[in-house]
C-alpha cells in the first residue's frame, strides 16, 4: 500500500471508530487542533499512565508535579523563548503557501538519503550474498557524491542557523532547486523568523492587562519549581521531576494530522545532576527511553535514534527517538542534555539562588539537567500507526474476507473485553450483563447485543479490543463461555470464573512495567 494511502486510512479509521475528531468540526474545523473521542481519550489515558508509572512509580528519585499553564512572562524571557523560539518561514509567491524553510531543506536531504538507499538496495540485489554495504558506501561514486552533497547542505544550514543568516537559508533553498511541493514553483520570498508562542492578556481592564504566554513546553514549569520540590521533598541529586500537560505552539506548517498540532500534550522529565556527569546520564536516559518504546512490542526496525545536527538554544547534545510514520521517520521523543542553562537563566532573571548544596563535595552549584520530552499525541499516533493492520482472512466456508484490526498492546487498549450474548433472548443478555458487572471493576468492558456475532467481532477488532466473550446456551448449563482472541482469532471455551485471571494476566500494565 502506498504510504499516502496508509496515512489517509489511519486518519479515517481514527474518526470512524471514535478515536480522534477534528476540533469544532461542525464549523468546518480548526486547523491543527483535534479532539479525542470516546476510545481516543481512554487510549491517551493509558499511554499517559504507562509513561507516568515508568517514571514516577518505578523510580524512587523521580517525583511528579502539575504546574499551571500560565506562567510569569519573565519565565519566557529567561528561558530564551521570547527571543529564540522561532521557526524560519518562507512563502511561495505563486502558490501563496507558507513553509518552514528548515523543513523544506530537511525534506530535500531525506530525498537524497532515499536516493542512496535505493542505490544500495539495487546493488544488494545485483551482488546477492557477496554484497558488502560498507565497502559499497565507501567506493561507489554516485553514493559518495550524494553523501557529500548532503554533508555540504547540512554544514551550510547549521552555520546559517547558528549565525541567524536568513538570506543564506534562502540561498540554500535556491541552490538545492527546492520547489514548492504543491505547485512545483521555485519563486520564493525572503526567509523571516516567526515566533511560535501564543500570547494572551492577563487582567480585565485592557490598560492594566499584561501580556502572558501559553506555555510552549511544560519543562519551564519544572525548572521554576526546582527549588520548591528539592527543599520540600528533601531531594538529593540526582533526582527527577516529571510532568504531563498541555503545551501550545503556533505552528506554521499545520499538517500531518496529530503529528504537528497547535495545542498538544507533553510528557517531560527533567533529571537534575551534578555538572560533569551529563554524558553518562544522557546515555542512560537514551537507552532507558528506547527500552520504554520497545517494550510495547512493535516492530523494532520502526524505531531509531537521530542525533541533532543543529541544537536548540539550550542544548549541549540532543537526540530524537524517531518512528517510521507513513510520511517517513520522524521525531516522537527528544532527549536533551540542557546543561545548567535554564536554572542559571532563571537565577539571573529572578535574582534568587537556584543552587544545590552537595554534601559530598561540600560545595554549592547550579545542577545540570538531562531532559526526556515526548509528545503524548505523537506517541498516540505512533501506537495507532504501529497497530493498524488490514489483513485477508479465511472464512469458515473457505472464502476470503478482509478485516481491519488494531493490534494495540493489550495494556493500552481502551476496551479490554467485549461481552456478547449469542442471541438477544433466552436469558443470555442477563447472563452477559451479570458477567460484565462482575468484571467492570477490573477491566473496561463493553456489552454489545446488536448485529451478528461476526460483525460484532469485526467492530471490536477495529477498536482494538483484545478479547471478546460470547455467552451462549451452553453457558446456562455449565457456566462456560467462549473467549476469542483478537490477534489470532482463535476461540476457546473457558469457565466464567477463570476470565478475570486469563484476561488480567494479559492486559495488566504491571507486566509491561516489569519488562522495562
Ligand atoms: N522541552 C523540550 C521540548 O519541548 P521539543 O522537541 O520541542 O522539545 C518535545 O518537543 C516533544 O513534544 C517532541 O518530541 C514531540 O513529540 C512533541 N511536540 C512538539 N511540538 C509538537 C506539536 N506541534 N504537535 C505535537 N507534538 C509536538
Give a verbal description of the structure.
There is one protein chain. The protein has 516 residues and is an alpha+beta fold. It folds into three domains: 272 residues, BirA Bifunctional Protein, domain 2, CATH 3.30.930; 107 residues, Herpes Virus-1, CATH 3.30.40.230; 105 residues, Anticodon-binding domain (Rossmann fold). It has 18 helices and 23 strands. The protein has a seven-stranded mixed β-sheet with strand order 3-9-10-16-13-12-11. Strands 20-19-21-22-23 form a five-stranded mixed β-sheet, with helices on both faces. A three-stranded antiparallel β-sheet has the order 5-4-6. Strand 14 and strand 15 form a beta hairpin. Helix 2 packs across helix 13, helix 5 runs parallel beside helix 8 and helix 7 packs antiparallel against helix 8. The longest helix has 27 residues. It is globular and about 80 Å long. The two termini are 33 Å apart. It binds glycyl-adenosine-5'-phosphate. Glycyl-adenosine-5'-phosphate (GAP) binds next to strand 10, strand 13, strand 16 and helix 13. Glycyl-adenosine-5'-phosphate binds next to strand 10, strand 13, strand 16 and helix 13.
Write the layout of secondary structure elements.
Elements: H1 3-16, E1 20-22, E2 34-36, H2 38-57, E3 62-65, H3 73-78, H4 81-84, E4 86-91, E5 98-100, H5 101-127, H6 133-139, H7 141-162, H8 166-175, E6 192-195, E7 199-202, E8 210-213, H9 219-223, H10 226-232, E9 239-248, E10 263-273, H11 278-294, E11 303-307, E12 317-325, E13 328-339, H12 341-350, E14 356-358, E15 363-365, E16 368-375, H13 376-387, E17 388-394, E18 400-406, E19 417-421, H14 428-439, E20 445-447, H15 453-463, E21 467-471, H16 473-478, E22 480-485, E23 491-495, H17 499-507, H18 509-514
Helix pairs in contact: 2-13, 5-7, 5-8, 7-8
Amino acid at each position: 500500500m502506498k504510504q499516502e494511502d496508509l496515512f489517509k486510512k489511519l486518519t479515517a479509521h481514527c474518526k470512524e471508530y471514535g478515536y480522534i475528531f477534528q476540533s469544532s468540526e461542525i464549523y468546518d474545523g480548526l486547523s491543527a487542533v483535534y479532539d479525542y473521542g470516546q476510545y481516543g481519550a481512554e487510549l491517551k489515558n493509558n499511554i499517559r499512565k504507562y509513561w507516568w508509572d515508568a517514571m514516577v512509580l518505578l523510580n524512587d528519585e523521580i517525583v511528579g508535579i502539575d504546574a499551571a499553564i500560565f506562567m510569569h512572562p519573565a519565565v519566557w524571557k529567561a528561558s530564551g523563548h521570547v527571543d529564540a523560539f522561532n521557526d524560519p518561514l518562507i512563502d511561495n509567491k505563486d502558490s501563496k503557501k507558507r513553509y518552514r524553510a528548515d523543513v523544506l531543506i530537511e525534506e530535500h536531504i531525506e530525498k537524497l538519503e532515499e536516493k542512496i538507499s535505493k542505490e544500495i538496495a539495487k546493488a544488494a540485489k545485483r551482488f546477492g550474498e557477496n554484497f558488502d554495504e560498507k565497502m559499497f558506501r565507501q567506493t561507489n561514486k554516485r553514493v559518495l557524491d550524494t553523501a557529500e552533497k548532503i554533508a555540504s547542505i547540512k554544514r551550510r544550514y547549521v552555520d546559517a542557523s547558528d549565525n541567524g543568516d536568513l538570506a543564506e537559508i534562502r540561498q540554500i533553498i535556491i541552490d538545492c532547486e527546492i520547489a514548492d511541493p504543491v505547485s512545483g514553483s521555485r519563486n520564493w520570498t525572503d526567509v523571516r523568523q516567526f515566533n511560535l508562542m501564543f500570547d494572551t492578556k492577563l487582567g480585565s481592564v485592557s490598560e492594566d492587562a499584561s501580556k502572558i504566554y501559553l506555555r510552549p513546553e511544560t519543562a519551564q514549569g519544572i525548572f521554576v519549581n526546582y527549588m520548591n520540590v528539592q527543599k520540600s521533598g528533601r531531594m538529593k541529586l540526582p533526582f527527577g521531576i516529571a510532568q504531563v500537560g498541555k503545551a501550545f505552539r503556533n505552528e506554521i506548517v499545520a499538517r500531518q494530522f496529530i503529528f504537528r498540532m497547535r495545542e498538544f500534550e507533553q510528557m517531560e522529565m527533567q533529571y537534575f545532576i551534578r555538572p560533569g556527569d551529563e554524558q553518562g546520564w544522557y546515555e542512560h536516559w537514551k537507552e532507558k527511553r528506547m527500552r520504554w518504546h520497545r517494550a510495547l512490542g512493535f516492530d523494532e526496525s520502526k524505531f531509531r535514534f537521530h542525533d541533532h545536527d543543529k541544537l536548540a538554544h539550550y542544548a549541549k547534545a540532543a537526540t530524537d527517538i524517531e518512528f517510521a510514520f507513513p510520511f517517513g521517520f520522524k521525531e516522537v521523543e527528544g532527549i536533551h542534555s540542557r546543561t545548567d542553562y535554564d536554572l542559571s537563566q532563571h537565577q539571573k532573571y529572578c535574582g534568587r539562588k537556584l543552587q544545590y548544596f552537595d554534601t559530598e563535595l561540600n560545595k554549592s552549584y547550579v545542577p545540570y539537567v538531562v531532559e526526556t520530552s515526548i509528545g503524548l499525541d505523537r506517541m498516540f499516533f505512533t501506537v495507532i500507526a504501529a497497530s493498524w493492520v488490514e489483513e485477508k482472512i479465511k472464512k469458515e466456508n473457505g472464502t476470503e474476507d478482509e478485516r481491519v484490526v488494531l493490534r494495540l498492546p493489550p495494556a493500552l487498549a481502551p476496551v479490554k473485553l467485549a461481552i456478547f450474548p449469542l442471541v438477544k433472548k433466552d436469558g443470555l443478555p442477563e447472563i452477559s450483563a451479570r458477567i460484565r458487572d462482575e468484571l467492570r471493576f477490573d477491566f473496561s468492558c463493553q456489552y454489545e447485543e446488536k448485529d451478528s456475532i461476526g460483525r460484532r467481532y469485526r467492530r471490536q477488532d477495529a477498536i482494538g479490543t483484545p478479547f471478546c466473550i460470547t455467552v451462549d446456551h451452553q453457558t446456562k448449563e455449565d457456566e462456560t463461555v467462549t473467549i476469542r482472541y483478537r490477534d489470532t482469532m482463535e476461540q476457546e471455551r473457558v469457565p466464567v470464573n477463570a476470565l478475570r485471571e486469563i484476561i488480567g494476566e494479559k492486559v495488566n500494565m504491571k507486566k509491561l512495567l516489569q519488562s522495562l
